[in-house]
Structures are given as C-alpha cells and as structure tokens.
Amino acid sequence: MDLERIAGARFDALILGGGITGVATAHRLARLGWSPLLIEPRDLAWGTSSRSSRLIHGGLRYLAHGELRLVRRALAERRALARIAPHLVRPTPMLLPLGRGEPWRWRTFAPAGVVAYDLLAGRRGWPRGRTIGRDEAETLVPGLRLGDERRVRVFYDGVTDDRRLTLVTAMAAREAGAQVVGRCELLGLEATEHGARARLRDLVSGQTLDVVVRSVVNATGPWVDRVRQRYGATRRGRLVRPSRGSHLAIPWRIDAAMLVPHPRDGRVGFFVPTATGMIVGTTDVADEGDPDAVRPSPDEIAYLEELADDGIPGMAGRERTGWAGLRPLAESPGPTNALSRAARYVMESVEGIPFLSIVGGKLTLHRVMARDAVRRLRPHLGTPARPARPDTAHLPGGDLATLAGLEARLRATGLDATQARWMVSRYGSQAEAVLGDEPPAPLGRGSIPLACEVGWAVREEGARTLSDVLLRWRLPELALDAEDETRIARAALTLLAHRLGLGSARAERERARWERERRAVWGGTGDRAAATR
C-alpha cells in the first residue's frame, strides 16, 4: 500500500503486530465501524502465528488438566472456523495408536478423553470418533508403528495452514475497512489534544509519516514486554513468559494426523499432514532470548527425531527442516509446561491514551480473543458505528460448496492433482481467480508453487517484498532440494521485479532480505543437506 494515503489520518486504534490476534482484532474493530490501523515490522504472521503445530483444536492435553471451559470454547470455534474457512480448517482424522509401550496414564486417559472430547464438541457439524482396522491405519499413515491392539481409535480435529489463516483474516479486515500494512514500524508516540501522534516508518522505502490514534493494541506476542518498555507503558513487571516450541518438517506424505507419546518422557507429540509431507512436534522450553532469533537447539532436534522415529520408524535418517516459535504465555509462577493457554488483557496508559496488551491464548481462539480485546477498548472508543453481528461471514476463499468439486474443476483446466490440491487448500473459492487465463507455470522442478501466485500475493494480499512471497509458501519446506529452492526464489524475484518495477539494486536488496529471514526461521540452505544422513 502507498503509505502517503494515510499520512495525517486519524484512527481509532493502532494495532501493533500482524499475527492472528492482531489481524483478528483489526477485523473485529472494522466490522463494528471503527477505524483500525495495523502495522507489522516483518511480514504478516512472521512470529508465533506461522510456527504453531497447525492445529485448530480443543486440546486433549488441556482436557487432561481440567480446563473444560477452555476446551469447550475452542471446540465451538473449531466448528465455526471450519464453516467460514473450509479450505483452511479441515476436519482431519487423528490416530491414537495404543499398545506401543506408552505410559499407563496415557493409555488409560486417551480413549476416555476422546469420548469426553466428542461430548464437549456436541453432535452437529463435526465427524465423531470411531475405531479403524490396522490396514486402514497403515494406509492413512504409511509406515507407522502399531502396537498390539487390533484396532486403532480415531477422532477428528482441525488441521490448518496458520500463516494462510492469518493472511485471509487480514484480507477480511481490509475488506471491512481496516488499514493493514506490513514492513512498517512505530517510531514513537506523542500526546496531542485529540489522541497521540504516532510516527511510522516504512521499512521498505524508508519513508516516515505521522498519524493520530486514539488507542493502541499491543498484539506483538513474544515481543509484548519489549514493546511496552519501548513506548513507556506504566505497569511494572513483565507480562509474558515465552516458551519455545520446535518442529521438524519431513517430506513423508501422510493423510491423517497422529498423537504419539515421546518414548523418553511420555510428552504427547503431534504428527500433522501438510501440503508436502508432515510436521512433527513439539517441544516446550523456556526461552528468554531474542524473539527475532528463535531456532531449535540440537537437543530439541534430537528429541524430535527420536519422536518421529518412534512413530514412523526410519524417519530419523530422512531429510528434514527444523524451525521454532515462541508461545507468548501469560507470566505466572511455575514451569512453562504447567501454564494455562488462557488469554490475559492488561490495560495501561501511554501518552494519555489507552494501551492494551494481549498475552497468552491460542490459535484456535483468536476470534474470541479479538472480541474480548474490543470489549475492553469499547469504554474508551465510545459507541460503535455499526451493531455487532454474528461472526458467520465466510473468510475470503471460504464460500464454496465442496472442496472436492472445486478440485475437479481445477483438474479440468489442466492442473495436476498436486497443483489442484495446493490451490484449493490455499485459496479456496479464489483459486480460479488466482490462476487467471494463463496455463499453470511451476517455478521449480516440482509442480508447485505457480508463477501466478506472485502477482496475486502483491495485488490482493499486500505482499511488498520477495521475502513476503517466499515466507508464505514456506519455501524451504516446499522445494525439492537446495538447488530447487534457489531456482524458485530467483524466478519469483524476476516476476516481482517486473510487477513492481524494481531496479537491479532494489532486486539485490530483496534477495539479501530473503536470505536473512530464511536463516532466521529455517537456518541456512546448507542445513537441509546437513540434515540428510
């Protein structure tokens, strides 16, 4: 977006942080007729919102800890999200292979927990749990290690692409009237007669500008306390206890998720299907370091390899990519693995205006968190211009009858099965608009990603840099190898340079930016080769 268009404008709320909580709050405010401006120094979903276990779920673990209210609310949201974004939140079978020497507590709790889980979810709008034979289980998860039981219990939970869910929520916020700007930072706040003057800097062009805001929402996740300190929040003490969760992405295709206790400590791990394989996670390690430099430790990589190999023998020796994110848990005494995922909201004052920080919570409950945040802002903003309406409108791409029907139509245009599945799972009913009239043109040796996606990312999704485009594809998890990754990045840069009219110097800066941000999330390109044994 051209930032000059908002220079000098007045906004009801300045939202700091382009993760799922921030964009959902912007969407909620805009739907009620207020004017939010959201800014994010990196790409949207740069932090926690692109580094989760990619599940929309109530959480059997929280059920085991007695957090029934949290689980019930999350299961209601799971059903609602699957209705408004069926291409992004898909009911997925989740296997519970038992009789493999797991801890007796898990073997006792898991079957009963699944029954309680289904009862809390209600009878409408979601598949019920069942049992399947060993042959069907091995078809869904090839190579899995089964125990001595003849049948395998299955329940259904939601699998998503967390980054895409954040992006389409941002698109919905823009459609409702919010301004959402990536690669932009807040330099400072200064009290004025009508609110606070916020000085912003465009991190792509270097341009600075001022806007006037009536409130600030600090939705920066692991950065919450740093942001509070930088802008002079009044409350003492920290609000966030960051916990690092690491994952491995492994190119092994599975058609169901799976819960497997770790053979070392019994902590339950996830195997989750993705577009190009599966992810295996997660860990829970206190992390007080720089949120901009979060990487799995060697011990975590070894721990996850052990989990992967226990669930599907032979995985530890396969090529894999590792990454990590920080859970912004609310500060409280005790170890991080005992902390609740319930959200916490703290209202302070900065330069004479309300400054609301949001911590804790979970991906599944982002709409609930947005509603709660707006309710706390409402006394300061006054009566909304529009009445509250049920959150039942489809997110962009979500207005489709069946996923299978759309895939069939795309196949008829010449896409292969992988391309059709990729386009539907990312864009839903907008897939045909993304494709346009041109034949599908893969950028690498594989059949995805497609050239048409670059233009769509810039035109419709607010991508401003090469890194924005490649991060949204999770390129290191997608490419066939390091050489293919380089090929795709170069091809995407050529398309981006043509669309934005970039000169050679700017194009080189874009390449360098991608290399820096790639290393920050996945390590260097050499890490992929080093992982192969």
Summarize the topology.
Blueprint: E1 10-11, E2 13-16, H1 20-31, E3 36-40, E4 55-56, H2 60-64, H3 68-84, E5 90-96, H4 104-121, E6 130-133, H5 134-140, E7 151-159, H6 162-176, E8 179-182, E9 184-192, E10 195-202, E11 208-213, E12 216-218, H7 224-230, E13 240-250, E14 257-261, E15 268-274, E16 277-281, E17 285-286, H8 298-311, E18 321-330, E19 344-350, E20 353-359, H9 366-381, H10 403-412, H11 417-427, H12 431-435, H13 452-461, H14 466-473, H15 475-478, H16 482-500, H17 504-522, H18 526-530
Parallel strand pairs: 1-11, 2-3, 2-12, 3-8, 5-14, 12-20
Antiparallel strand pairs: 4-7, 5-7, 6-7, 9-10, 10-11, 13-16, 13-17, 13-18, 14-15, 15-16, 19-20
Radius of gyration: 23 Å
**CATH class identity of the domain at 3-48 and 163-239 and 341-381:** Alpha Beta
The oligomeric state of the chains shown is: single chain
| Low-confidence runs | 528-533
β-strand percent reads 15-25%
Features:
single chain, 533 residues, alpha/beta, FAD/NAD(P)-binding domain, ten-stranded mixed beta sheet, six-stranded mixed beta sheet, 18 helices, globular, disordered C terminus
Protein architecture, described:
The protein has 533 residues and is an alpha/beta fold. Among the domains are: 3-48 and 163-239 and 341-381, FAD/NAD(P)-binding domain (3-Layer(bba) Sandwich); 244-324, D-Amino Acid Oxidase, Chain A, domain 2; 403-530, Helicase, Ruva Protein, domain 3. Helix content is 38%, strand content 22%. It has helices at residues 20-31, 60-64, 68-84, 104-121, 134-140, 162-176, 224-230, 298-311, 366-381, 403-412, 417-427, 431-435, 452-461, 466-473, 475-478, 482-500, 504-522, 526-530, and strands spanning 10-11, 13-16, 36-40, 55-56, 90-96, 130-133, 151-159, 179-182, 184-192, 195-202, 208-213, 216-218, 240-250, 257-261, 268-274, 277-281, 285-286, 321-330, 344-350, 353-359. Helix 1 packs parallel to helix 6 and helix 1 (20-31) packs across helix 9. The radius of gyration is 23 Å and the shape is globular.
